[in-house]
Amino acid sequence: MESQAHRAVSGLETDFTREDTGIQWEKCKDRLARILPAPVFQAFIRPMILTSDDTAAGSPIFLSLNDENAVRHVELRYMHIIRESLLETELRGQVSLRFAGMTVAAKNSQKQHAGDTGAGLRAPELPIDAQKKDNEPNFYPNTANEIAVQILRELEFPEHIGMIYGPSGCGKTALAKEIVRRYPEKNMARYLSLEGFFTEFLTACKLGSVLAWRSAIRRNKLLVIDDFHFMKKSAVKTQEEIRNLLDEFSAAGKKILFCTETAPAKIEMQKDLESRLRTARLFELFYPEKQIRLKILGAEWKRLNLPEKPEILEYLAEKNCGDVRLLKSCALRLSHRLSAAGEFSWELNEVNEICGTLFAPPSDVGPDKIMAAVTHFFRISREALTGPARDKKYSLARHLFAYLCSELLNTRLAEIAAWAGRRDHTFVLHAKKKIEEMKRKDLFFSHQIEKIKSEILRDSH
């Protein structure tokens, strides 16, 4: 016999008849069409098929989709809304979502598990990648970020609010999801994008279930809100909701993390929310350096089951400007080509043909922009950097300029040397060796370099 806990988790229970199932489901879909944004309804709700494995009263109701990723997305974002909508119809029973491509044996196994554990097919509390092992990292930090990332992973900071910020593609989302996944109290931490937070809040308002939604959000001891740079000053109600959430989490000793591409001071906010976020602990992330890029690419290579090609990994890590998203896309493109063609020469010219568009830096990053950033940092003129002066300050600025150009621009070393006012490519090789040696010996200097590089790239997105 079903336990009350099982029925509570599943969300619905009363009489269920097969004859009017289709009619009732259509009524439910009509209601969902009025509540949910049109793109969401068209992509996820309209394709759903409602079925039941037997005709008995109270038998399980299954909502099926052909896309397994769509199933997980709907479970995470919209299943509670679907259940509430079904309550307005005459449909009753346990409601679960499943992948339509599942084998009969898998379905039976899932039903058996549901009967044994009383858990049914619950919507997951964590993101899709939360199925990974707790000790398996999602995020590999720049060396200059190692201490800050360790503090974040362990949540060992006294402030109740944390701000993770850095350029697009530096790994903020991967780190945020990892922190949620590793949280020691299971099902007490949650990740949401700002769009997801807004959609849930808006839907709860339309359904008249704001109090229930607030209660569900506030039961967490850790909440992560990603893409916070998309916040608009005109979104008054959303900001008010976040402000109240901050107050309640702070009073209860809980933590909220925000992820943003923009420095917090540049985000448009109402003054009452801005004043609260000024108390946040700031964690700035930089793009990973080459050795870390190699590690990230190697993990993606293994995930995609690509053949061992250390020289290709080295080449891709060297050519990439630091954007993790672009780096992983290189591996994905090569995997698709290998699957489509069945064989692949792995020659550099063919790799370039497939991945070349992912090597290019943002269109407005060039020697002039790098020169401006370096001369501003050292407080020297452009003429001093490219001139004959050999003072330590000018030499270091010149070396850093060459190093950043070689890291960020897909160009010949001889051309970089000419921009720096030097004769040949050996100057650039010496400059790269010098800067990399200094970075290894001086963590503060390494942090400064990564900050300059991140500012150059951040201003380009």
Description:
With 461 residues, the chain is α/β, with parallel strands linked by helices. The protein is 55% helix and 8% strand. It has four domains: 4-124, DnaA, N-terminal domain (GMP Synthetase, Chain A, domain 3, 2-Layer Sandwich); 131-284, P-loop containing nucleotide triphosphate hydrolases (Rossmann fold), CATH 3.40.50; 290-359; 367-458, DnaA protein, C-terminal DNA-binding domain (Chromosomal Replication Initiator Protein Dnaa, Chain: A), CATH 1.10.1750.10. The protein contains 22 helices and eight strands. Strands 5-6-7-4-8 form a five-stranded parallel sheet, sandwiched between helices. A three-stranded mixed sheet has the order 1-2-3. A hairpin with an 8-residue loop joins strand 1 and strand 2 (61-65). Helix 9 runs antiparallel to helix 10. The N and C termini lie far apart (58 Å). The relative contact order is 0.08. Residues 1-19 and 102-131 have low confidence and may be disordered.
Search tags:
22 helices, GMP Synthetase, Chain A, domain 3, 55% helix, 5-stranded parallel beta sheet, alpha/beta, 461 residues, Rossmann fold
In summary, what is this structure?
By secondary structure, this protein is α/β, with parallel strands linked by helices.
Instruction: Please give the CATH architecture of the largest domain.
Output: 3-Layer(aba) Sandwich
Strand percent estimate: 5-15%
Radius of gyration: 27 Å
Query: What is the count of β-strands?
Result: 8
Number of domains: 4
CATH class of the largest domain: Alpha Beta
- Oligomeric nature of the chains: single chain
CATH fold name of the largest domain: Rossmann fold
Q: What string, H for helix and E for strand, traces the elements in order? A: HHHEEHHEHHEHEHHEHEHEHHHHHHHHHH
Looking at CATH, the homologous superfamily of the largest domain is: P-loop containing nucleotide triphosphate hydrolases
Number of helices: 22
Major sheet, described briefly? 5 strands, parallel
- How would the global form be characterised? globular
Unreliable residue runs: 1-19, 102-131
- The class by helix and strand makeup works out as alpha/beta
Mean pLDDT: 80
Distance between the termini: 58 Å
Please state how the strands of the largest beta sheet are arranged side by side.
Answer: 5-6-7-4-8
Task: Determine the fraction of residues in helical runs and give it as a percent range.
Answer: 55-70%
